[in-house]
Amino acid sequence: MSSQRRSHIHIANQEVPDAREDTLKVPGITIHGQNRLLSITLQFVILFAFWLLLSGRYQAKYIIIGVISAALVTFLTNDLFYFALQRGEELGMKSGQVFRQIWRFLLYIPWLLLQIILANVQVAYLVLHPKMPIEPALFLFRTRMRKGMAQVTLANSITLTPGTITVSLEDGNYIIHTLKPPLASGLVDGTMQSKVARVYLEEKEPRPEVRWVYSLKELKE
To answer: Is residue 70 part of a domain?
Structure first.
């Protein structure tokens, strides 16, 4: 009896494993999964917004077609979009920074469209004026933006705006052609540079030092 009692006491004193540890643990949503879900959602919203903007039709059937189209394109191409986000993280950029850049770029587009409209009006006036008061000129300036994408975005924005064309971009040095100096006022005072810098989380651009030239001979000097 004493030996049986001791064995029972020994067993009673042993630690009994928690039954909850034997149950199947269901993992929560990982950071990877959260980022993937966020990238899918963001891509779908951007595509659907562009659909509504370009179609200009807001009847139910067009909205349904837009939802289906945006969802299909997102399904087929999200791997590329997500890879770009992952690549950004490998380069030291957090997903939050990438999404912030995308959001700021979307806000930049309406501002750029407004500049294009205003420049169209100015160029139309110059062309339709009987004396056609144009003063073609080249000017040079340097940007402090370090990211290649930011520099290219600025170059393309300049070219998209009527009256100005990016002739050359090399290591942050720009050569711009304009029909008339006032058409380039947004570049001379650094407004467009600062807008692009903000999109790509760069430091605010100061007013650049601009050098005007009116002939190829002056450009080579």
So the answer is: yes
Q: Are residues 179 and 199 in the same domain?
A: yes
User: Over the stretch 57-106, which tens digit does the pLDDT of each residue have?
Assistant: 788 888 899 899 989 988 887 776 666 555 554 444 555 677 788 788 88
DSSP class per residue in the chain: -HHHHHHHHHHHHSPPPPHHHHSPP-----HHHHHHHHHHHHHHHHHHHHHHHHH---SHHHHHHHHHHHHHHHHHHHHHHHHHHHHHHHTT--HHHHHHHHHHHHHHHHHHHHHHHHHHHHHHHHHHSTT-----EEEEEE-----HHHHHHHHHHHHHSTTEEEEEEETTEEEEEESSGGGGHHHHTTHHHHHHHHHTTPPPPPPPP-EEESSHHHHH-
100-150 pLDDT, tens digit per residue, is 887 888 889 889 989 999 999 999 999 898 888 889 999 999 999 988 888
Domain containing residue 158: 103-220
Judged by average pLDDT, the poorest of 17-26, 44-53, 79-88, 125-134 is 17-26
Cα dist from 26 to 29, 50, 174, whole Å: 10, 38, 56
In this structure, the answer to whether residues 119 and 63 fall within a common structural domain is no
- In the chain, the number of structural domains is 2
Q: Is the pTM of this model over 0.70?
A: no
